[in-house]
């Protein structure tokens, strides 16, 4: 209990001034349970529009669980309590159309997971399911999405090739292209570069910095250099709690909480 | 003995066991083919069987085998697909699912002669379908369902969850994800499973003796009206298949060349089953290549 008190007293969480910043997504008092055990307690964050926010923390700190709760990918696995506010709606409530909501809040996963279809179909498929049928329109969206993911020039002649024949880095960029093709507002990325080599990683990072102009990006990363390179804000998770949330520069140079300092200096995690 | 020596001995023993299995298989196949292949001719494959004279063929039986196979697959594939999808994609981990799985396991270990007798009582007698293609197809469905369901369920289970997540993350519903992403990705192994089960159906005799019957009345191959009893397509005519024919010749065949007909028919049967197996491998590989490469 003493430990608990110390942690709460040591929390430092930034809240935005609503007049100065536009908030794309925020959570209020989010709790996530796997069965009886609580994975996230008191998740309370706001994400500014058109910025990149990183979620960092040691393994098992709950950052991925938190991210996956934001577009309700945890629905069948865990119980999520609390509010997730998006455009004035609590998207964690029961009467939300989850499928519709996920078109606004897209996601890219740790391991590239292209469909066993052609490169073109990987992108066009979900659009067609939602009624975009005109060949010309589909062609256009496929091209812009691939351009935004910075891979159009490499694959424009191979659009009918199977996506599974691409390299890991290209597959992951295809997954990003696929996610932005449905034109979401917010892009959630769960350690998108952790399975990739350094060159692919830096390409993905460049892509994200480019995408930031049109998308609000929330990214979970194990790589602290990555967080400091690309993100505007960083939240530090430990043992299911957000201990610190600040501008990335502040968190890395002047952490307010001891544990954050320990973590970013590599003393644990 | 040291570890290295033990390993060598073990390797030798395992090779010997594997070799033994292969030799049995080759000897069996070789014997059947050597005995039977000389009997196979175009005449043998196309002409009807003769009960009392030499020179009969297996044409009608061969046609019956394929027709029954087709009907049995037409009935069992949609059911197995539905059951496989339910079990792997929709069913929760609870007692009811466990019960269904146990039922399927029991059903798959049922001896085929029991399936045949059940088919006789249920389809032939109770539903008054008589000895007919339809009764046979239903019996084969009972025989085939559990195995096909299991193989489809396994094919679906081999598709990584990350594929499903990818679908959900794009705002697709579970149904869309299953039908448009998971099933297509599992198609190569589903098709392999279907073709392999086709081989098993094709060679099945015991389940058909009392359902599809042991007689092959003459067919009029110019009559394609399925409601006419002499039409090859008629589902209500009795239809002795190749496997049943072999069994029958060997137990009560009185034609003078019974031995030769039996040998030839066995060779045709085994070649067909082998073809199904090769076809399954080839199709599976091809589809997989098609999905993963250009």
Question: How would you describe what is shown here?
Answer:
Chain B: Pfam families: BPD_transp_1. Chain B: The chain crosses the membrane at residues 12-34, 66-87, 99-123, 129-148, 181-202, 260-280. Chain B: It is found in: Cell membrane. Chain B: InterPro entries: MetI-like, MetI-like_sf, Phosphate_PstA. Chain B: Keywords: Cell membrane, Membrane, Transmembrane, Transmembrane helix, Transport. The complex is a heterodimer of chains A (269) and B (294). Chain A is α/β, with parallel strands linked by helices and 269 residues long. Chain A has one domain (2-264): Rossmann fold. Chain A is 37% helix and 25% strand. Chain A has eleven helices and twelve strands. Chain A has a seven-stranded mixed β-sheet, with helices on both faces. In chain A, strands 2, 3, 4, 6 and 7 form a five-stranded antiparallel β-sheet that branches. In chain A, α4 (119-129) packs across α5, α4 packs parallel to α7 and α5 crosses α7. The two termini of chain A are 23 Å apart. Chain B is mainly alpha-helical. Chain B has a single domain (40-292), classed as Orthogonal Bundle (MetI-like fold). Chain B contains eleven helices and no strands. Chain B has helices at residues 3-36, 42-46, 59-90, 95-108, 112-126, 133-157, 161-169, 174-202, 206-209, 242-252, 258-292. The model of chain B has no long low-confidence stretch (mean pLDDT 92).
């Amino acid at each position: 209990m003493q430990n608990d008190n110390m942690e709460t007293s040591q929390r430092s969480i930034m809240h935005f001034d609503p007049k100065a910043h536009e908030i794309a997504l925020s959570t209020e008092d989010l709790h996530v349970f796997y069965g009886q055990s609580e994975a996230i307690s008191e998740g309370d964050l706001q994400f500014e529009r058109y910025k990149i926010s990183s979620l960092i923390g040691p393994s098992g700190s709950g950052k991925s669980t938190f991210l996956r709760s934001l577009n309700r990918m945890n629905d069948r696995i865990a119980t999520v309590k609390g509010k997730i506010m998006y455009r004035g709606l609590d998207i964690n409530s029961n009467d939300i159309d989850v499928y519709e909501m996920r078109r606004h809040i897209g996601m890219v996963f740790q391991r590239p997971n292209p469909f066993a279809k052609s490169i073109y179909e990987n992108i066009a498929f979900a659009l067609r399911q939602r009624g975009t049928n005109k060949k010309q329109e589909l062609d256009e969206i496929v091209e812009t999405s691939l351009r935004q993911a910075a891979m159009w020039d490499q694959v424009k002649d191979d659009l009918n090739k199977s996506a599974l024949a691409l390299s890991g880095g290209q597959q992951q960029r295809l997954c990003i292209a696929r996610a932005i093709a449905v034109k979401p507002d917010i892009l959630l990325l769960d350690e998108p570069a952790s399975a990739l080599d350094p060159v692919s990683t830096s390409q993905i990072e460049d892509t994200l910095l480019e995408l930031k102009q049109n998308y609000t990006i929330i990214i979970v990363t194990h790589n602290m250099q990555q967080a400091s390179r690309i993100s505007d804000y960083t939240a530090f998770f430990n043992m299911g709690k957000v201990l610190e949330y600040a501008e990335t520069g502040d968190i890395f140079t002047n952490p307010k909480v001891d544990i954050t300092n320990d973590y970013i200096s590599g003393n644990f995690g | 003995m040291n570890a290295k020596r033990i390993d060598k001995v073990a390797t030798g023993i395992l090779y010997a066991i594997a070799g033994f299995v292969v030799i049995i298989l080759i000897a069996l196949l070789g014997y059947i083919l050597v005995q039977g292949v000389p009997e196979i001719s175009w005449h043998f494959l196309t002409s009807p069987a003769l009960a009392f004279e030499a020179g009969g063929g297996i044409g009608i039986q061969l046609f019956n085998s394929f027709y029954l196979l087709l009907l049995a697959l037409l009935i069992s594939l949609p059911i197995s697909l539905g059951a496989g999808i339910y079990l792997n994609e929709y069913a929760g981990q609870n007692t009811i699912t466990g019960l269904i799985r146990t039922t399927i396991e029991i059903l798959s270990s049922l001896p085929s002669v029991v399936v045949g007798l059940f088919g006789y009582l249920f389809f032939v007698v109770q539903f008054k379908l008589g000895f007919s293609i339809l009764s046979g197809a239903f019996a084969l469905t009972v025989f085939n369902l559990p195995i096909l369901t299991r193989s489809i369920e396994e094919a679906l289970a081999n598709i990584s969850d990350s594929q499903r997540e990818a679908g959900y993350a794009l705002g697709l519903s579970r149904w869309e994800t299953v039908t448009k992403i998971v099933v297509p990705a599992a198609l190569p192994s589903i098709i392999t499973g279907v073709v392999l089960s086709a081989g098993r159906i094709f060679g099945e005799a015991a389940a058909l003796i009392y359902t599809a019957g042991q007689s092959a009345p003459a067919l009029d191959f110019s009559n394609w009206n399925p409601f006419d009893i002499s039409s090859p397509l008629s589902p209500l005519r009795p239809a002795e298949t190749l496997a049943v024919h072999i069994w029958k010749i060997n137990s009560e065949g009185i034609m003078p060349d019974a031995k030769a007909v039996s040998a030839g028919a066995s060779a045709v049967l085994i070649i067909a089953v082998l073809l199904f197996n090769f076809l399954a491998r080839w199709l599976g590989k091809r589809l997989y290549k098609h999905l993963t490469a250009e």
